[in-house]
Write a structure and sequence with these properties.
TIM Barrel, three-stranded antiparallel beta sheet, 13 helices
Protein backbone atom coordinates (compact mmCIF):
# COMPACT_ATOMS: atom_id res chain seq x y z
CA UNK A 1 0.00 0.00 0.00
CA UNK A 2 1.21 3.49 -0.80
CA UNK A 3 2.17 6.02 1.85
CA UNK A 4 1.33 9.69 2.11
CA UNK A 5 4.98 10.41 1.42
CA UNK A 6 4.58 8.95 -2.06
CA UNK A 7 2.56 12.05 -2.98
CA UNK A 8 3.23 15.77 -3.05
CA UNK A 9 1.00 18.81 -2.71
CA UNK A 10 1.79 21.35 -5.40
CA UNK A 11 1.10 25.01 -4.70
CA UNK A 12 2.36 27.26 -7.45
CA UNK A 13 5.83 26.10 -8.45
CA UNK A 14 6.64 24.40 -5.12
CA UNK A 15 5.89 20.96 -3.72
CA UNK A 16 5.18 19.93 -0.13
CA UNK A 17 4.41 16.88 1.94
CA UNK A 18 0.61 16.76 1.45
CA UNK A 19 -0.18 17.18 5.15
CA UNK A 20 -1.72 20.38 6.45
CA UNK A 21 -2.32 20.80 10.19
CA UNK A 22 -5.59 22.67 10.64
CA UNK A 23 -5.92 25.95 12.47
CA UNK A 24 -7.47 25.43 15.90
CA UNK A 25 -8.32 28.39 18.12
CA UNK A 26 -7.99 29.82 20.67
CA UNK A 27 -4.23 29.20 20.93
CA UNK A 28 -4.64 25.47 20.35
CA UNK A 29 -2.79 25.55 17.03
CA UNK A 30 0.23 27.27 18.51
CA UNK A 31 3.27 28.66 16.76
CA UNK A 32 5.23 25.64 17.99
CA UNK A 33 2.77 23.24 16.36
CA UNK A 34 2.83 25.07 13.04
CA UNK A 35 6.63 25.18 13.08
CA UNK A 36 6.84 21.39 13.37
CA UNK A 37 4.72 20.96 10.23
CA UNK A 38 6.75 23.53 8.27
CA UNK A 39 10.02 22.03 9.45
CA UNK A 40 8.98 18.61 8.17
CA UNK A 41 8.03 19.92 4.73
CA UNK A 42 4.29 20.23 5.27
CA UNK A 43 1.98 23.12 6.08
CA UNK A 44 1.07 24.31 9.56
CA UNK A 45 -1.53 26.79 10.72
CA UNK A 46 -1.66 29.28 13.51
CA UNK A 47 -5.07 30.72 14.33
CA UNK A 48 -6.00 34.38 14.50
CA UNK A 49 -8.98 33.67 16.75
CA UNK A 50 -8.84 36.22 19.61
CA UNK A 51 -5.26 37.08 18.72
CA UNK A 52 -4.94 39.95 21.25
CA UNK A 53 -5.81 37.41 23.95
CA UNK A 54 -3.21 35.01 22.56
CA UNK A 55 -0.67 37.83 22.51
CA UNK A 56 -1.28 38.53 26.20
CA UNK A 57 -0.60 34.89 27.00
CA UNK A 58 2.41 34.43 24.75
CA UNK A 59 4.11 37.81 24.61
CA UNK A 60 3.20 39.44 27.92
CA UNK A 61 1.09 42.21 26.40
CA UNK A 62 -1.92 43.73 28.19
CA UNK A 63 -4.53 44.11 25.45
CA UNK A 64 -7.36 42.41 27.36
CA UNK A 65 -6.69 44.26 30.62
CA UNK A 66 -6.51 47.62 28.89
CA UNK A 67 -9.69 47.01 26.87
CA UNK A 68 -11.60 45.99 30.00
CA UNK A 69 -10.34 49.07 31.82
CA UNK A 70 -11.49 51.29 28.95
CA UNK A 71 -15.04 49.86 28.87
CA UNK A 72 -15.49 48.78 32.49
CA UNK A 73 -18.29 51.32 32.91
CA UNK A 74 -20.36 49.23 30.48
CA UNK A 75 -20.06 45.82 32.19
CA UNK A 76 -23.62 45.75 33.57
CA UNK A 77 -25.14 47.21 30.41
CA UNK A 78 -26.72 44.66 28.07
CA UNK A 79 -26.13 47.07 25.15
CA UNK A 80 -22.56 46.43 23.96
CA UNK A 81 -22.61 48.70 20.89
CA UNK A 82 -20.05 51.06 22.42
CA UNK A 83 -17.49 48.28 22.98
CA UNK A 84 -15.09 48.63 20.06
CA UNK A 85 -11.70 47.17 19.16
CA UNK A 86 -8.85 49.60 18.61
CA UNK A 87 -7.89 48.69 15.04
CA UNK A 88 -4.31 49.86 15.47
CA UNK A 89 -3.86 47.60 18.49
CA UNK A 90 -5.54 44.72 16.67
CA UNK A 91 -3.06 45.15 13.83
CA UNK A 92 -0.20 45.34 16.32
CA UNK A 93 -1.23 42.09 18.03
CA UNK A 94 -1.71 40.24 14.74
CA UNK A 95 1.61 41.40 13.32
CA UNK A 96 3.50 40.48 16.48
CA UNK A 97 2.04 36.96 16.59
CA UNK A 98 2.69 36.30 12.90
CA UNK A 99 6.15 37.86 12.85
CA UNK A 100 7.25 35.96 15.95
CA UNK A 101 6.17 32.72 14.29
CA UNK A 102 7.68 33.44 10.89
CA UNK A 103 11.06 34.47 12.35
CA UNK A 104 11.36 31.04 13.95
CA UNK A 105 10.41 29.11 10.83
CA UNK A 106 12.85 26.52 9.52
CA UNK A 107 12.56 23.89 6.81
CA UNK A 108 10.90 23.72 3.42
CA UNK A 109 7.27 23.91 4.50
CA UNK A 110 4.84 26.80 4.90
CA UNK A 111 2.98 28.49 7.73
CA UNK A 112 -0.56 29.74 7.15
CA UNK A 113 -2.96 31.58 9.41
CA UNK A 114 -6.53 30.38 9.84
CA UNK A 115 -8.89 33.34 9.80
CA UNK A 116 -12.22 32.71 11.57
CA UNK A 117 -14.47 35.09 9.71
CA UNK A 118 -17.35 34.71 12.18
CA UNK A 119 -15.34 36.82 14.63
CA UNK A 120 -17.38 39.91 13.81
CA UNK A 121 -15.89 41.97 16.69
CA UNK A 122 -18.53 44.73 16.56
CA UNK A 123 -17.11 45.81 13.21
CA UNK A 124 -17.17 42.84 10.80
CA UNK A 125 -15.61 44.39 7.71
CA UNK A 126 -13.09 46.69 9.36
CA UNK A 127 -11.76 44.14 11.84
CA UNK A 128 -11.54 41.43 9.19
CA UNK A 129 -9.65 43.76 6.86
CA UNK A 130 -7.14 44.60 9.59
CA UNK A 131 -6.57 40.97 10.53
CA UNK A 132 -5.98 39.88 6.94
CA UNK A 133 -3.74 42.78 5.96
CA UNK A 134 -1.71 42.66 9.18
CA UNK A 135 -0.94 38.98 8.71
CA UNK A 136 0.26 39.74 5.18
CA UNK A 137 2.33 42.67 6.40
CA UNK A 138 4.06 40.41 8.91
CA UNK A 139 5.10 37.87 6.27
CA UNK A 140 2.62 35.01 6.62
CA UNK A 141 2.96 32.40 3.84
CA UNK A 142 -0.77 31.93 3.40
CA UNK A 143 -4.25 32.66 4.75
CA UNK A 144 -7.08 30.14 5.08
CA UNK A 145 -10.50 31.77 5.27
CA UNK A 146 -12.76 29.74 7.56
CA UNK A 147 -15.84 29.73 9.78
CA UNK A 148 -18.17 32.02 7.90
CA UNK A 149 -16.61 32.56 4.48
CA UNK A 150 -17.15 36.27 3.97
CA UNK A 151 -17.71 36.39 0.20
CA UNK A 152 -16.01 39.76 -0.09
CA UNK A 153 -12.79 38.80 1.69
CA UNK A 154 -10.55 39.00 -1.38
CA UNK A 155 -11.83 42.50 -2.12
CA UNK A 156 -10.67 43.65 1.32
CA UNK A 157 -7.05 42.94 0.45
CA UNK A 158 -6.88 43.21 -3.35
CA UNK A 159 -4.85 46.41 -3.18
CA UNK A 160 -2.28 44.88 -0.81
CA UNK A 161 1.16 44.47 -2.45
CA UNK A 162 1.22 40.77 -1.49
CA UNK A 163 -2.30 39.99 -2.78
CA UNK A 164 -1.00 37.85 -5.64
CA UNK A 165 1.97 36.54 -3.72
CA UNK A 166 0.54 35.14 -0.49
CA UNK A 167 -1.32 31.84 -0.75
CA UNK A 168 -5.06 32.33 -0.23
CA UNK A 169 -7.36 29.41 0.47
CA UNK A 170 -10.92 28.84 1.63
CA UNK A 171 -12.71 26.17 3.64
CA UNK A 172 -16.03 24.97 2.23
CA UNK A 173 -18.39 22.11 2.98
CA UNK A 174 -20.36 22.20 -0.26
CA UNK A 175 -19.94 22.84 -3.96
CA UNK A 176 -22.43 25.70 -3.75
CA UNK A 177 -20.26 27.54 -1.21
CA UNK A 178 -17.24 27.28 -3.52
CA UNK A 179 -19.23 28.46 -6.53
CA UNK A 180 -20.59 31.48 -4.64
CA UNK A 181 -17.15 32.49 -3.46
CA UNK A 182 -15.56 32.23 -6.90
CA UNK A 183 -18.42 34.19 -8.46
CA UNK A 184 -18.21 36.94 -5.85
CA UNK A 185 -14.41 37.15 -6.10
CA UNK A 186 -14.27 37.12 -9.92
CA UNK A 187 -13.84 40.89 -10.10
CA UNK A 188 -10.47 40.59 -8.30
CA UNK A 189 -9.26 38.16 -10.99
CA UNK A 190 -7.90 35.98 -8.21
CA UNK A 191 -8.81 32.32 -7.70
CA UNK A 192 -8.17 30.58 -4.38
CA UNK A 193 -4.78 28.84 -4.39
CA UNK A 194 -6.41 25.85 -2.67
CA UNK A 195 -9.74 24.79 -1.27
CA UNK A 196 -10.09 22.78 1.92
CA UNK A 197 -13.20 20.61 1.72
CA UNK A 198 -14.28 20.00 5.30
CA UNK A 199 -16.66 17.13 5.97
CA UNK A 200 -19.20 16.51 8.74
CA UNK A 201 -16.79 14.66 11.06
CA UNK A 202 -14.57 17.70 11.62
CA UNK A 203 -14.01 19.35 14.98
CA UNK A 204 -15.39 22.63 16.22
CA UNK A 205 -17.78 24.61 14.04
CA UNK A 206 -19.34 22.69 11.17
CA UNK A 207 -20.44 23.92 7.77
CA UNK A 208 -23.61 21.83 8.02
CA UNK A 209 -26.91 21.95 9.86
CA UNK A 210 -27.96 19.47 12.49
CA UNK A 211 -28.51 17.05 9.61
CA UNK A 212 -24.70 16.76 9.34
CA UNK A 213 -24.79 12.95 9.62
CA UNK A 214 -26.51 12.73 6.23
CA UNK A 215 -23.38 13.98 4.46
CA UNK A 216 -20.15 12.22 3.53
CA UNK A 217 -16.74 13.77 2.92
CA UNK A 218 -15.81 11.45 0.04
CA UNK A 219 -19.01 12.37 -1.80
CA UNK A 220 -18.53 16.12 -1.32
CA UNK A 221 -14.86 15.94 -2.35
CA UNK A 222 -15.74 14.00 -5.49
CA UNK A 223 -18.45 16.51 -6.45
CA UNK A 224 -16.20 19.53 -5.95
CA UNK A 225 -13.24 17.90 -7.72
CA UNK A 226 -15.41 17.00 -10.71
CA UNK A 227 -16.72 20.56 -10.99
CA UNK A 228 -13.23 22.08 -10.76
CA UNK A 229 -12.05 19.74 -13.50
CA UNK A 230 -15.07 20.49 -15.71
CA UNK A 231 -14.47 24.24 -15.31
CA UNK A 232 -10.76 23.71 -16.09
CA UNK A 233 -9.70 25.50 -12.92
CA UNK A 234 -6.35 24.98 -11.29
CA UNK A 235 -7.39 24.74 -7.63
CA UNK A 236 -5.90 21.95 -5.50
CA UNK A 237 -8.46 20.20 -3.28
CA UNK A 238 -7.54 19.31 0.30
CA UNK A 239 -9.75 16.85 2.19
CA UNK A 240 -10.46 17.49 5.87
CA UNK A 241 -12.58 16.08 8.67
CA UNK A 242 -12.16 12.50 9.85
CA UNK A 243 -8.78 11.76 8.26
CA UNK A 244 -7.43 9.82 11.23
CA UNK A 245 -4.64 7.66 9.78
CA UNK A 246 -2.10 7.83 7.00
CA UNK A 247 -4.11 5.18 5.18
CA UNK A 248 -7.24 7.37 5.41
CA UNK A 249 -5.19 10.11 3.76
CA UNK A 250 -3.90 7.81 1.03
CA UNK A 251 -7.46 6.80 0.13
CA UNK A 252 -8.15 10.45 -0.68
CA UNK A 253 -4.81 11.04 -2.40
CA UNK A 254 -5.42 8.04 -4.67
CA UNK A 255 -8.53 9.77 -6.04
CA UNK A 256 -6.53 12.82 -7.11
CA UNK A 257 -7.00 14.97 -4.02
CA UNK A 258 -3.94 17.19 -3.55
CA UNK A 259 -3.58 16.83 0.20
CA UNK A 260 -5.30 16.35 3.55
CA UNK A 261 -5.88 18.63 6.50
CA UNK A 262 -5.68 16.97 9.91
CA UNK A 263 -6.05 18.28 13.45
CA UNK A 264 -7.65 15.90 15.98
CA UNK A 265 -4.55 13.79 16.55
CA UNK A 266 -2.46 16.90 17.18
CA UNK A 267 -4.67 18.02 20.07
CA UNK A 268 -2.81 15.60 22.36
CA UNK A 269 0.72 16.69 21.47
CA UNK A 270 3.18 18.67 23.56
CA UNK A 271 3.18 21.48 21.01
CA UNK A 272 -0.61 21.92 21.13
CA UNK A 273 -1.92 24.71 23.34
CA UNK A 274 -4.44 22.57 25.23
CA UNK A 275 -3.55 22.18 28.92
CA UNK A 276 -2.32 18.69 29.86
CA UNK A 277 -5.33 17.94 32.07
CA UNK A 278 -7.73 18.77 29.23
CA UNK A 279 -5.74 16.53 26.88
CA UNK A 280 -6.41 13.63 29.25
CA UNK A 281 -10.16 14.22 28.83
CA UNK A 282 -9.67 13.90 25.08
CA UNK A 283 -7.76 10.65 25.50
CA UNK A 284 -10.37 9.20 27.84
CA UNK A 285 -13.41 10.11 25.72
CA UNK A 286 -15.74 7.42 24.44
CA UNK A 287 -17.77 7.90 21.26
CA UNK A 288 -20.86 8.49 23.39
CA UNK A 289 -19.06 11.39 25.13
CA UNK A 290 -19.03 13.48 21.92
CA UNK A 291 -21.94 15.55 20.67
CA UNK A 292 -22.87 18.13 18.06
CA UNK A 293 -24.84 20.98 19.62
CA UNK A 294 -25.98 24.51 18.85
CA UNK A 295 -24.59 26.40 21.85
CA UNK A 296 -22.20 28.51 19.77
CA UNK A 297 -23.38 32.12 19.38
CA UNK A 298 -22.12 32.01 15.77
CA UNK A 299 -25.22 30.06 14.73
CA UNK A 300 -23.16 27.12 13.49
CA UNK A 301 -23.43 23.62 15.00
CA UNK A 302 -20.34 22.72 16.98
CA UNK A 303 -18.83 19.34 17.93
CA UNK A 304 -17.44 19.01 21.44
CA UNK A 305 -17.11 16.76 24.47
CA UNK A 306 -20.33 16.59 26.48
CA UNK A 307 -18.30 17.14 29.64
CA UNK A 308 -17.11 20.59 28.50
CA UNK A 309 -17.39 23.01 31.45
CA UNK A 310 -18.73 25.59 28.99
CA UNK A 311 -22.02 23.74 28.58
CA UNK A 312 -24.63 25.28 30.84
CA UNK A 313 -22.22 27.74 32.45
CA UNK A 314 -24.17 30.95 32.92
CA UNK A 315 -21.29 33.37 33.37
CA UNK A 316 -21.83 37.07 32.86
CA UNK A 317 -20.99 38.15 29.29
CA UNK A 318 -17.39 39.33 29.18
CA UNK A 319 -17.67 41.54 26.12
CA UNK A 320 -15.79 44.48 27.59
CA UNK A 321 -12.65 42.35 27.86
CA UNK A 322 -13.25 40.18 24.79
CA UNK A 323 -16.31 40.80 22.59
CA UNK A 324 -15.09 38.90 19.57
CA UNK A 325 -18.56 37.66 18.61
CA UNK A 326 -20.43 40.95 18.87
CA UNK A 327 -22.19 41.78 15.62
CA UNK A 328 -22.21 45.21 14.00
CA UNK A 329 -24.95 46.30 16.41
CA UNK A 330 -23.12 45.09 19.50
CA UNK A 331 -25.33 42.04 19.96
CA UNK A 332 -24.56 38.38 20.66
CA UNK A 333 -27.03 35.53 21.11
CA UNK A 334 -25.38 34.56 24.39
CA UNK A 335 -26.17 37.98 25.84
CA UNK A 336 -29.82 37.46 24.90
CA UNK A 337 -29.88 33.98 26.44
CA UNK A 338 -28.09 35.16 29.59
CA UNK A 339 -30.48 38.07 30.14
CA UNK A 340 -33.47 35.77 29.63
CA UNK A 341 -32.27 33.38 32.33
CA UNK A 342 -31.36 36.27 34.63
CA UNK A 343 -34.92 37.60 34.34
CA UNK A 344 -36.39 34.14 35.01
CA UNK A 345 -34.18 33.54 38.07
CA UNK A 346 -33.53 36.96 39.63
CA UNK A 347 -32.60 35.53 43.05
CA UNK A 348 -30.26 32.76 41.84
CA UNK A 349 -26.63 33.03 42.92
CA UNK A 350 -25.54 31.29 39.72
CA UNK A 351 -27.74 30.80 36.69
CA UNK A 352 -27.46 28.14 34.00
CA UNK A 353 -27.64 28.95 30.30
CA UNK A 354 -28.06 25.71 28.37
CA UNK A 355 -28.83 26.87 24.83
CA UNK A 356 -25.82 29.18 24.27
CA UNK A 357 -22.35 29.73 25.71
CA UNK A 358 -20.08 32.72 26.18
CA UNK A 359 -17.72 31.38 23.55
CA UNK A 360 -15.04 34.06 23.99
CA UNK A 361 -14.50 33.44 27.69
CA UNK A 362 -14.93 29.68 27.47
CA UNK A 363 -12.45 29.29 24.59
CA UNK A 364 -9.99 31.61 26.27
CA UNK A 365 -10.16 29.45 29.43
CA UNK A 366 -9.97 26.15 27.47
CA UNK A 367 -13.38 25.17 28.88
CA UNK A 368 -15.11 24.62 25.53
CA UNK A 369 -13.68 21.25 24.51
CA UNK A 370 -14.33 21.22 20.79
CA UNK A 371 -13.15 18.07 19.06
CA UNK A 372 -13.32 15.92 15.95
CA UNK A 373 -15.64 12.94 15.67
CA UNK A 374 -12.78 10.46 16.02
CA UNK A 375 -11.47 11.93 19.25
CA UNK A 376 -12.62 8.72 20.96
CA UNK A 377 -9.90 6.90 19.00
CA UNK A 378 -7.07 8.98 20.45
CA UNK A 379 -6.53 6.41 23.21
CA UNK A 380 -5.42 3.99 20.48
CA UNK A 381 -2.61 6.33 19.45
CA UNK A 382 -0.78 6.47 22.77
CA UNK A 383 0.31 4.45 25.79
CA UNK A 384 -1.44 4.36 29.14
CA UNK A 385 0.52 4.75 32.36
CA UNK A 386 -0.04 2.87 35.60
CA UNK A 387 -1.95 5.85 37.02
CA UNK A 388 -4.43 5.72 34.13
CA UNK A 389 -3.13 8.76 32.26
CA UNK A 390 -2.03 8.65 28.65
CA UNK A 391 1.35 9.69 27.32
CA UNK A 392 1.31 13.06 25.56
CA UNK A 393 2.78 12.74 22.07
CA UNK A 394 5.17 14.84 20.06
CA UNK A 395 3.84 16.62 16.99
CA UNK A 396 6.74 15.25 14.98
CA UNK A 397 5.75 11.68 15.91
CA UNK A 398 2.15 12.23 14.81
CA UNK A 399 3.16 14.01 11.59
CA UNK A 400 5.55 11.24 10.59
CA UNK A 401 3.00 8.57 11.43
CA UNK A 402 0.63 10.20 8.93
CA UNK A 403 3.47 10.52 6.44
CA UNK A 404 4.85 6.99 6.53
CA UNK A 405 2.25 4.59 7.98
CA UNK A 406 0.52 1.91 5.91
CA UNK A 407 -2.31 -0.63 6.30
CA UNK A 408 -4.30 1.54 8.72
CA UNK A 409 -1.65 1.12 11.40
CA UNK A 410 -0.84 3.76 14.02
CA UNK A 411 2.67 3.93 15.43
CA UNK A 412 2.73 4.13 19.23
CA UNK A 413 5.29 6.36 20.93
CA UNK A 414 8.37 5.15 22.76
CA UNK A 415 7.23 4.71 26.40
CA UNK A 416 8.31 7.46 28.78
CA UNK A 417 7.23 5.63 31.91
CA UNK A 418 5.89 2.34 33.26
CA UNK A 419 2.76 1.41 31.35
CA UNK A 420 -0.26 -0.78 31.83
CA UNK A 421 -1.57 -1.02 28.28
CA UNK A 422 -1.61 0.62 24.89
Amino acid sequence: MKRVDDYRLKLGDREFVPIMIGGMGVDISTSDLSLIAAGLGGIGHISDAMVPTVSDRRYDTKYVRDKLKLYKHNVTNSNKSDVQFDLALLAEATEAHVRNTMERKRGDGLIFINCMEKLTMNGPKDTLRVRLRSAMDAGIDGITLAAGLHLGSFALIEDHPRFRDVKLGIIVSSLRALQLFIKKSARTQRLPDYVVVEGPLAGGHLGFGMDWAEYDLHTIVAEISAWIKAEQLDIPVIAAGGVFTGSDAVRFLETGVAGVQVATRFTVTHECGLPADVQQHYFAAAESDIEVNTISPTGYPMRMLKSSPAIGDGIRPNCEAYGYLLDANGSCSYITAYNRELALHPDAKRIKVMDKTCLCTQMRNFDCWTCGHYTYRLKDTSIRAADGSYQILSAEHVFKDYQFSTDDTIALPVPEYATTEA
